Amino acid sequence: MTESSSRSGRKDIGTLIVASLFIGLGLVTLYDVTTYSDRDSVVFPSFVAYALIFCSVLVVIASWLRPNQHNGFGSGDWWRRLLLVATMLAGCFVMPLIGFLPATVIAFAGGLVSARHEGWDARSAIVFAASGVFIMAGFYALFRFALGVPLP
Q1: Are 22 and 57 in contact (CB under 8 A)?
Q2: Taking the CA of residue 57 as centre, how many other CA atoms within 13 Å lie in the half-sphere pointing to its CB?
Q3: For residue 117, which of 77, 72, 59 has the smallest C-alpha distance?
Q4: What is the value of pTM for the model shown?
Q5: Which residues of the chain have pLDDT under 50?
Q6: What is the pLDDT at residue 6?
Q7: What is the pLDDT of residue 10?
């Protein structure tokens, strides 16, 4: 038996773990929205939770049908993954304290730094900063004015 054939029978452990966590987070969210007093506040988180559960179930099924040879973890820079998760969590935790836009700057900057594999020069920094301003302003306008979500 060759290594490629023995690997093809293994399941994507990392993918299954993450997809299962997302299913669990979706279920926790659905449970949490049952405590909301305003029925309008339930719509968006419920929709996102159902979409998260549905997509995660699809990932689990796909992982079982066609496993990844890298076992779901793959290769890459772990510091980038940790930076992305850390800045997203930091943005969530500081949002009530410093507001939507500054917290979004933290999350956007961390995501940008963790995703940019090429080197930085002045032109790319200006382009990414300008696009970030437009994206963050767009999300602020969407949540604040179009959706009527009260933001910190």
Answers
A1: no
A2: 8
A3: 77
A4: 0.61
A5: 1-9
A6: 44
A7: 57
Query: Residue 147 contacts by C-beta under 8 Å, 6 or more apart in sequence?
Result: 44
pLDDT of residue 93: 94
Sequence-ordered list of residues with C-beta below 8 angstroms from that of 55, at least 6 positions apart, any chain: 22
- Residues 100 and 47: their CA atoms lie apart, in Å, by 22
Tokens of 8: 């093809």
d(C-alpha 148, C-alpha 18), whole Å:
32
Contact 88, 107 (CB under 8 A): yes
CA pair distance 139, 112, nearest whole angstrom: 17
Residue among 52, 66, 60, 79 at smallest CA distance from 15: 60
- CA angle in degrees (0–180, nearest 5) for 147-33-86: 75
pLDDT of residue 150: 80
Question: Residue 136: what pLDDT?
Answer: 93
Residues composing the chain: 152
Give the whole-angstrom CA distance, residue 22 versus residue 25.
Answer: 5
Under DSSP, the state recorded for 10 is S
- pLDDT of amino acid 29: 94
In a 13 Å sphere around the CA of 34, the CA atoms on its Cβ side amount to 5
